[in-house]
């Protein structure tokens, strides 16, 4: 019962930047291979990878156009722009891509707009704002996005509410708060957004619990704890989440006293509460750029391994 780096099938894809330019690799025939040309982009940061209409798409902070975000899709054997290079107006941060059905979303913040949140959507023909641009009241750090049952949500650390967690939803015309503004009991870091049984769930590093993980679920009328507050053994310094619908998984960089920080994964399984998946601290070294994908019968974790000169590593935990 441990995370393994062997036999990563079904084939996930990972992105990384070589000298600031993007390379996408796919695991195929028991080895990692570049998908298309390596380093195909202009110098980039804040890179996000999703699958859209069966093809990989990368969204990134594009330094060639003053940090506005650009989007490229792998199609017909080559990487191609979706829309113009540099789609938004100002330097973009917290850039994240999300794909649902035939829609491709990009959530981001902009420095010139006080790091407020914006969401744009590609409908197959053009990019357009979902509601107003810069719709949050103040800065929206650790911005996350999700579409659930046809409704769009964002979660973030809310600068207008003491850096507590807030969630907003799009009602078809404008963005509104879901429940109270800043509903967490204290300030948060490293926010994750997912769902459990068709209701939104947020997971965050909780200042009240000394940086340990806390999760909250929307009950339909208010936000409630999902399990106990501060359920991890150590401090969480980075978070990635996913859900099967009935179980929630969170990967995080865990810091324990007198121990180097490393990756742990935990899951919530109803009455059993939160528990570790496999051995905690399985990466055995400091990592960056953590991501989590829940497959049909396995959990995949990807990260840049500091002990291996920041090279990418993908590990899998079988659930069967």
Oligomer: single chain
CATH topology of the largest domain: Neuraminidase
**Strand order in space, largest sheet:** 4-5-6-7
Q: What distance lies between the first and last C-alpha atoms, to the nearest angstrom?
A: 10 Å
CATH fourth-tier homologous superfamily of the largest domain: Kelch-type beta propeller
Q: Report the biggest beta sheet as strand number plus sense, adding barrel if it closes.
A: 4 strands, antiparallel
Number of domains: 2
Strand share of the residues?
over 45%
The level of helicity is under 10%
Class from helix and strand fractions:
mainly beta
| Unreliable parts | 3-11
Mean pLDDT: 92
Note the overall shape.
globular
CA radius of gyration: 19 Å
Strand elements, count: 26
Count of alpha/pi helices: 0
**N to C succession of SSEs:** EEEEEEEEEEEEEEEEEEEEEEEEEE
What would you say the CATH architecture of the largest domain is?
6 Propeller
Task: Assign the CATH class of the largest domain.
Answer: Mainly Beta
Describe this structure in words.
This protein is an all-beta fold. The chain has two domains: 10-135, Neuraminidase (6 Propeller), CATH 2.120.10.80; 188-319, Neuraminidase (6 Propeller). Helix content is 0%, strand content 56%. It contains no helices and 26 strands. It has strands at residues 13-18, 21-28, 31-34, 44-52, 55-62, 68-75, 78-81, 92-100, 103-110, 116-122, 127-129, 140-148, 151-158, 164-170, 175-177, 188-196, 199-206, 212-218, 223-225, 235-243, 248-255, 262-268, 274-276, 287-294, 298-305, 311-318. Strands 4-5-6-7 form a four-stranded antiparallel sheet, with no helix packed on it. Strands 8-9-10-11 form a four-stranded antiparallel sheet, with no helix packed on it. Strand 13 (151-158) and strand 14 (164-170) form a beta hairpin. The radius of gyration is 19 Å and the shape is globular. The N and C termini lie close together (10 Å). Residues 3-11 have low confidence and may be disordered.
């Amino acid at each position: 019962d441990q995370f393994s780096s062997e036999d990563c099938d079904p084939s996930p894809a990972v992105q990384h930047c070589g000298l600031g330019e993007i390379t996408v690799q796919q695991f195929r025939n028991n080895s990692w291979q570049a998908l298309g040309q390596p380093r195909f982009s202009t110098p980039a940061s804040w890179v996000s990878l999703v699958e859209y209409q069966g093809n990989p798409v990368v969204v990134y902070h594009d330094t060639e156009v003053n940090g506005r975000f650009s989007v490229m899709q792998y199609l017909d054997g080559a990487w191609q722009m979706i829309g113009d290079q540099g789609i938004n107006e100002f330097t973009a941060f917290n850039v994240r891509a999300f794909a649902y059905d035939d829609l491709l979303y990009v959530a981001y913040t902009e420095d010139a707009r006080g790091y407020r949140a914006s969401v744009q959507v590609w409908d197959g023909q053009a990019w357009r704002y979902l509601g107003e641009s810069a719709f949050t009241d103040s800065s929206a750090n650790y911005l996350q996005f999700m579409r659930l049952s046809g409704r769009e949500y964002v979660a973030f650390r809310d600068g207008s509410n003491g850096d507590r967690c807030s969630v907003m939803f799009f009602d078809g015309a404008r963005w509104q708060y879901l429940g109270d503004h800043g509903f967490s009991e204290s300030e948060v870091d490293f926010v994750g957004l997912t769902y459990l049984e068709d209701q939104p769930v947020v997971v965050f590093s909780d200042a009240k619990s000394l940086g340990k993980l806390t999760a909250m679920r929307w009950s339909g009328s208010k936000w409630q704890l999902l399990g106990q507050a501060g359920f991890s053994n150590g401090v969480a310094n980075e978070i990635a989440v996913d859900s099967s619908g009935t179980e929630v998984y969170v990967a995080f960089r865990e810091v324990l006293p007198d121990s180097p920080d490393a990756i742990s994964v935990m899951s919530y399984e109803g009455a059993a509460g939160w528990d570790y998946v496999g051995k905690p601290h399985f990466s055995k070294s400091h990592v960056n750029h953590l991501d989590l994908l829940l497959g049909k019968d396995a959990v995949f974790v990807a990260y840049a391994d500091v002990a291996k000169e920041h090279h990418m590593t993908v590990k899998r935990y079988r659930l069967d």
